[in-house]
Design goal:
Radius of gyration: 19 Å
Number of strands: 0
Number of helices: 2
Strand content: under 5%
Order of helices and strands: HH
Length: 82
């Protein structure tokens, strides 16, 4: 069961990383669409705040996925007490 759970954790970590990369790839296009829809200057504080929030979301997704993958692939600790 542990091996099966480990496999799903690895898949979930890869999905998180892919979602985070997708956020960064789509960020410039979506920000342009939001700026046009709201008819605001692309350098306005509102757009910069949205840019920061989406970038933070991407960083957290990538960081969480990498952490999950790292702990999934890390060898178990060796018990020296035996």
């Amino acid at each position: 069961m542990d091996r099966r759970k480990n496999k799903w954790q690895l898949v979930w970590g890869a999905a998180l990383v892919a979602a985070g990369i997708g956020v960064f790839i789509m960020l410039p296009q979506r920000m342009d669409q939001i700026a046009q829809a709201r008819q605001v200057d692309p350098a306005s504080l509102e757009i910069l705040f949205l840019w920061f929030c989406f970038a933070l979301l991407g960083v957290l997704l990538i960081g969480g996925g990498v952490r999950k993958i790292y702990f999934c692939l890390k060898p178990p600790p060796i018990d020296e007490s035996k």
